[in-house]
Fold:
Amino acid sequence: MRILYLHQYYHTPAEGGAVRSYHIAQGLAAAGHTVHVITTWQGSVKRVSQAGNLQITHLPIPYSNSMSKKERMLAFWAFIWQSYREARQWLPADRVFATSTPLTIGLVALLLKYIHGVRYVFEVRDNWPEAPIQLGFVKGRTYIWFLRTLERWIYNQADSVLTLSPTLASHVQAQAPQTPVHMVPNFADSTLLTTTTKNGQEYFHVVYAGSFGYANQVQRLLDVALVAHKARLRIQFTLAGDGAERAAAEAFVLEHNLIRTVFFMPMLSRYGVANLLASADAAYIGFRPEVVLQANSPNKFFDALSAGVPVLLGVSGWLEELVVDSGCGVSFSSYSSDIEALKALMQKDWQAMHQACLSLAPRFAKETLVQKVVDVVAAPA
Structure:
């Protein structure tokens, strides 16, 4: 097949950010399909690269989590227009594979279907627009009605919809009962991450590698770090990443004199994340308490499983069930306070949690799940 792959934030392992689309594109190309990825980059001119039957077009549309709401919306709409114009130049195509966020990428898939007759598969990574609605970023009854109507339209017109969690799959199925829905979570990639042993240092090392966005609630980990510091626990925290909340996080550390226990690193490549996890005793994964965020499938969770690093979990939902049932870490909600959860994690049998992570990881093996996505995207019409 000739497959158009639309994803605004496509990254390779050498770059910082999620690499799910990289692995899927590689899997589609390895299966013999001709794949054209249309994405963005921070540069000022269009960039095109080719490797065998995989072509990647980077459109010059800068984007970052630290942008204002208006700047991000302009970036979304710029990608709609420019990606559609770029896609037309590559037609005819047999299939479009469009992945959100943002949900608005579905408009390009709809245009290509209605105007050019190209059927599409849609992937939902986050519950959008419900997440920004519940977080208060999207307001106005008319605007909310428009986005929810668009969401249902995109799902109902798709050949299939891929989701990343059971909760999200149920949500999509309720919106589009006639559309086949497939749940394929993020991948545990054992080829990129090194199996770890306890770091052997005199301190317990907790790491966070990800976005410093509003939804990620990095402040919760900093609050724990402050209480741990006052309790004189032998513990160190390393936070790697970037985003709108990073400056506030750094200011909090200075204000509360945590500079000897809390350290910051820039956003890391996949290889950098692997090295950071190799020195970790635990990995923090958290989101704000809004119900809609419990459906998320964060890469950092599956990275921790692959590396055998126990999880300090600050989110409920399906991930909490995995952690509690497998014993691969602790969940804040299982304890009377966050600091008690941290203390419990430090006192548990680290090797047993380490092995629980490694035992759970094959359930989310990259090779198996990539093939499942390839089968859905390339299914006969």
